[in-house]
Amino acid sequence: MSSTAEAAAAPATLSVPSARAWRGLPSLALAIVAVLVASSFAPTSGYILNMVMQAATYAIGVAGLVVVLGYCGQISLAQAAFFGLGAYGVGIGATDYGLPFLVALLIGVGVATGFGIALGLASLRLGGHYLAMVTISFQQIVTLVLTNWIGLTHGPDGIKSIPRPSFPGLHLDRGDHYLALCLVVLMVVTWYAWRLKTSRLGRAMQAVRDNEIAASTCGIDVFRTKVLAFGISALLGGLGGGLFAGAFAYISPDQFAFGESIVLLTMALLGGVQSPFGALLGTTLLVLLPEWLRFLKNIYLAVYGAAVILIMVFLPDGLWGLVTNRLRRATPIEGTVPPLPLLSQRASASGEPALEIAGLAKHFGGLKALDGVDLTVRRGAVHALIGPNGSGKTTFINVATGLYRPTAGRIRLAGQDLTAAAPHERTRRGLARTFQNIRVFRGMTVLENVMIGAERPGNDIAEQPAAVVGRALAALDFVGLRGDANRLVGTLSYGHQRYVEIARALAGNPHVLLLDEPAAGLNMTEKGELGALLRRLKGHGLTILIVDHDMNLVEQVADHITVLNFGRRIADGSPRDVLSDPDVIAAYLGEPRENALA
Ligand code: ADP
Ligand code: MG
């Protein structure tokens, strides 16, 4: 089936998450008009105007935190620094160098984005707390430079009389007009961040946030995704800062210090860092809250702090999360979809080597988890890799999928050498896997989990949003979970989460599927269902390497069995020969056959 025909075959009634975002476009246009009309009633100067201006420009920067922290799960404590870089770009460019506002803004945003990408590059070597420390250091360096490079930045005195942009007929020197400009930019940014969440890139970011290892084996370039998240976040920070400089005409280093980064972070977390609307809400609240609490006089700061802490402790998803979690509906998705392609195309070149592994070794210090293992999975076959606990089966799959570097040996997929390829690169070439310890993307729905599988780079329909949804639903149909498509994956039973993993792998239309102990943790009924599922997959000619120590399951489906013991291959052949091999029986039962039967 051609890919265009397939896209067209996806029913129009499907609620396609990425298409839903585009539906916001007319409402965005309407809202912008509404803002422009409303802002003509705004005061042209004064206290209220300044407060709204501050909230609007901050909120643009906070939207950046939604991308990097909310979507991609990378904590950045330098958002005020990016905000400051944007502001100083405008300040220095428009006053000292007399550049037009827009040009100065572009320079500021460009510098901020460049440093954001550089911070993202640091994530190659550092993760978690260490990366957070690097962002703090960067924040401190920016503050030091802004304060001490007096020749460029005017030092602690700051920059005064920053002009606003001038467009013929717009009178942006008037407060209410400039506010309207800021609000329009804010709305476009909010819309972009909201749309991003349901785009392919946004899903990749959320996958990285929820499980980096699973993301990489789904074909996502984890490093590139993080760099992009940092870059977009810094860009939005710089944009907010640049508009801030125009709004207040005066900037100084203390406005962009570490404490402000914490304020921006608090705004995001308070409102809900998973959504740009949450960020908007949090920013508005945190700008207004001090005003509301003013009557408390001396104890105002304590009450303010306590209120923020209470909200964050009791509402981990922020205020916006409280609203959306209530409204979340786990309705099934109606409509028919084309079946999985693996069901319609039986393996043509059956019997040819699909995955060839030669002399594979993996040593952990002195422990030889794998020691010169040869194994060839043939196209269209179900190949079982069995062996006692700790014999190296999971290590074998981890090396084959690129999560571990082999100590020695070669790995070829469909004739191509992949020994040095990154995990996402192997997935792109058609390798898919599931995990012994389930690795699903917990913050996402069942459908979104499987869509990430369908979006595997190299998959025929990866670039077509509607077909991706169709393919994901087809995979869910295959494992019988269509009815749960809109549920959060964490609300499913353990057995069903395994099925989500299998569906995620199937949606990518893999050439070879590696299953690591799919029966682990399942009860007897579930094991029976899994056996039936595997027989159906086998019937469709999918090439599978299954790891298990449940002989029952293996005997039902395997065409070929390889046995490992202490990292060495001790048998390889047809199920009948291998299962009656005395060495295998001894390895399995830990003693000679006669004793075992006695
Ligand atoms: P299996 O999946 O067959 O039960 P594994 O491949 O998980 O076995 O483990 C094989 C051996 O390698 C075990 O002795 C295990 O402790 C060791 N091992 C596995 N992964 C690591 C690791 N990341 N670091 C050190 N040792 C490991
Ligand atoms: Mg294992």
TrEMBL record:
List, alphabetically, the InterPro entries matched: AAA+_ATPase (IPR003593), ABC_transp_permease (IPR001851), ABC_transporter-like_ATP-bd (IPR003439), BCA_ABC_TP_C (IPR032823), LivM-like (IPR043428), P-loop_NTPase (IPR027417)
Q: Where in the cell is it found?
A: Cell membrane
Residues covered by the ABC transporter domain: 355-591
The record's SMART domains line, in alphabetical order, gives:
AAA (SM00382)
Q: Which domain of life is it from?
A: Bacteria
Keyword Transmembrane on this protein?
Answer: yes
This chain's protein is named ATP-binding cassette domain-containing protein
- Organism whose genome encodes this protein: Muricoccus nepalensis
